[in-house]
Amino acid sequence: MKKQIEKLIFLSFVGLLILGISSCNSGNKAEEQNTENQEEPQTEEVESDPMKNKGIGPVSSITLEALNADLAKKGGELFTNKCSACHALDKRVVGPPLDRLTERRTPEWIMNMILNPEQMVKEDPIAKELLGEYLAPMANQSLTQDESRAILEYFRENDSK
Amino acid sequence: MKTKKIILSGIGLIGLSLLFSCGNNEISSDSMSKDAASKVYVEPGKYDEFYMFTSGGFSGQVGVYGLPSGRLFKTIPVFSVDAEKGYGFSEETKPLLNTSHGFIPWGDSHHPALSKTDGNADGRWLFINENNTPRIARIDLKTFKTVEVIEIPNSSGNHPSPYPTENTEYLVAGTRFSSPLFGETDVPISSYKEKFQGTISLISVDKKSGRLDVASQILVPPFDFDKNRAGKGASRDWSFFTCYNTEKSNTMKEANASQNDKDFILAVNWKKAEEYVKSGKGKKVASKYCHNVYDEKTHTATSTVKNSTVLLDPKDCPGLVYFMPCPKSPHGVDVSPDGKYIVASGKLAALIPVFSYDKMMSAIQNKKFDGNIDGIPVLQYNEVIAGEVEKPGLGPLHTEFDDKGYAYTSMFLSSEIVKWKLGSWKVVDRIPVHYSIGHLLVPGGDSKNPYGKYVIALNKITKDRYLPTGPELTQSAQLIDISGEKMKMLLDFPTIGEPHYAQAIKADVLMNNSTKIFKLEDNKHPYAVKSEKETKVVRNGNIVHVYISTIRSHFAPDNIEGIKVGDVVYWHVTNLEQDWDVPHGFAVKGALNSELLVMPGETSTLKWEPKEPGVYPMYCTDFCSALHQEMQGYVRVSPANANVPLTWSLNNVSNKK
Asked: Does the distance separating the beta carbons of A94 and B531 come in below 8 Å?
């Protein structure tokens, strides 16, 4: 009997202790859950149609015009210097093959992936999945928005053939 | 009985839970209160308020800390090799450590000094002096790299150095060790009094590039010149030195250099020196010294040997230098924020003498001299003294200033900092430090506008303050709050090497200018590659140049064959990354030097001379990605007479044309 009382007293103290510690954090936890809930429907919606996903980053909307050969040439040079260490058009190297890319991704998504890869692999559902598959994170090569646009033109030219 | 115990432990648990639950309860001890802890606490992910640059002392380097947290961010290699960064081992950085004696892998760094504009730190460069092989280095505060090292000729013991003038026109240096400098140098040591000399050096700093040059040197008697400071405001044309060993002793200086009751402050008019050099009063003297400059575009340092300097003799240059008598064996000399007072700390004196710049000028004008030494007039003590701080403590060494008219002097022997008032010269507060404080600093405390928030004690001895680590113990810094009337101890943290001086600067002056990457387009290294397409291996006799690149996470090429025993292989590693905080390391088995640590956009070279045939692995040493462990390659080494052709490839594809 005495032992049971001892146990009871002890357990209630432990309970108090846990209560004391957790009470301070409860606010944060609720917040975390909320944001998780908000993210989920988005994820599903975007994954269903990659051609509607513009990605996350500085490029929100791009209007494409007729193919600009000069711009594509400049993009090709940039691709050789800044991207070809990890990417080829026709095969997987470190990163995925990029042939037919403009048929699989929106122009905005492509440019945001070049310009803002850190956030993309953390938050964009397609980029997140790609990181899981390739394991090497897309490198930020500190390109300008104009340079990423030129690289996009290079992909467009390639895909038009 | 048992129940009681449990209840007690339960109460204890509640107490504990309260303590830790919300972090608002007091944990009090003698040295640290909750209040102190909150003042030095920098939340995870938040930034410190100040950068502090500490001298690495006999490590030869510079430490970069945050204040108020006391966290160490970086060690900048300066005068000593640093295998971790390849500093002094890579072909590009070896020339930085070249001297007139040849390559020297170690130095003894002393006083970091921030470049100044109008008497305040401008955040462009950090200078630091080396004592053993007289040198001054310039560190670029954008890249936090050593970018220039100049040797000071006709000097030994470059201790009073490199304190810049008000607008960094000059770095001013002197000789702690006199020696036979001009004329015959192979002389008996006992001829010290007749044959030995000292010099003061003015090192000019180019306003735009920061480039250093030995502009002129001034001949001075063979005393031990110990510390110096440039004037500011009214006294901006002057630099002030302490000296001891006015006895001119060459042995058992401990006793023999402490005989005179007064030694001197040497006042040097650097503006006058400039004029005398211009008007041709200087004598060109042969002097061999090295000047080493690092080029950020080629990522490479070059070392140039220079052959002469201009020497000024005070006998021919009236008004250039004056002595002011100073009690006894003075060490530090510091100038008040308004430039009006010169505070000397006689380490064996019972008081702190404060000299008046205005009085010095009128004493010079009215020729209040007590004779001269080697053509240098000696001003009368009573004509130049502004006041004396009585009974400050034992062993005063250095003084810094706050923004409220107070001065803080370190006391080596009595292990304390003493706060006193400029003008009244009265001690108003003192605080013990642990132990044997040398230098101290107030952020901005040597400038025209001190921040006056903290004073930091730089302690030589820590004895029982930390967990013991064998016979050699850490040195330490102690952060003290000076915002109130009473000084308050906040934090104790270990420092690297002996903490000679340190300087602090507001974080926002530097952080936004910090270099993140080196642009590949700007890389002018002769062996750089701009893409994997340009990688190659080139043989020229037994010299082999490997143009190799890194990107997460592979080398290009990563298979190389056709190297032979007897070859001298240069690995020129270009890091193709253009993202912040993605350096790659490079190590190859059998290398007798170090690794390379290559910043984004940089090219760095490791020399490798394999001694035996075999297949040698090479790999990345700095964790770079999830596939870092896969970042490796092989190089095949064949016997000297083998016929294995030179080939290189990545992924079984060669870009050999």
From this structure: no
Q: Is residue A3 part of a domain?
A: no
CA B413, distance to chain mean position in Å, is: 25
- Distance from the Cα of B648 to chain A's closest Cα (Å) equals 16
Domains and CATH numbers, chain B: 50-513 (2.130.10.10), 522-649 (2.60.40.420)
pLDDT digits (tens, 9 = 90+) for B11-34: 444 444 444 434 333 334 554 567
Rounded to 5 degrees, what angle do the CA atoms B270, B275, B278 make?
125
Which residues on B lie below 8 Å from A137 (Cβ)? 552, 625-626
Under 8 Å between Cβ of B107 and B84: no
Contact at CB, A13 and B16, closer than 8 angstroms? no
Domain containing A82 — which CATH number?
1.10.760.10
Name the residue among A16, A21, A85 with its Cβ closest to that of B549: A85
Shortest Cα–Cα distance, B433 to chain A (Å): 37
CB atoms B14 and A13 under 8 Å: yes
A67 touches chain B (CB under 8 A): no
Q: Could you report the predicted ipTM of this complex, rounded to two decimals?
A: 0.75
Give the pTM: 0.89
- Our measurement of the distance from residue B54's CA atom to the centroid of its chain's CA atoms, rounded to an integer in Å, reads 7
CA distance B393 to B643: 78
Is A101 among the domain residues?
A: yes
Residue A98 lies in a domain: yes
* Nearest alpha-carbon partner for B650 in B533, B577, B584, B556: B556
Chain A residue numbers touching B620 (CB-CB < 8 A):
none
Question: Is A61 contained in some domain?
Answer: no
Name which of B2, B531, B555 to mutate to probe chain A: the one with the most chain A Cβ atoms within 10 A of its Cβ. B531
3-state secondary structure of B636: strand
Structural domain of residue A90, as residue ranges? 69-160
Number of domains in chain A: 1
Q: What is the mean pLDDT of each run of 10 residues along chain B (657 residues)?
A: 46 42 42 79 97 97 98 98 98 98 98 98 98 98 98 98 98 98 95 97 98 98 98 98 97 92 97 98 97 98 98 98 96 98 91 97 98 97 97 96 98 96 98 96 98 96 95 95 97 90 97 97 97 97 98 96 98 97 97 98 98 98 92 98 97 81
Cβ B552–A86 below 8 Å, yes or no?
yes
CB atoms within 10 A of CB A4: 8
Strand B212-220 and strand B300-312: the pairing is: parallel
CA-based nearest distance A145→chain B, Å: 15
- Report pLDDT digits (tens) over B151-201: 999 999 999 999 999 999 999 999 999 999 998 999 999 999 999 999 999
d(CA B511, CA B50): 10
Q: Which of B7, B556, B577 sits opposite A139 (nearest CB)?
A: B577
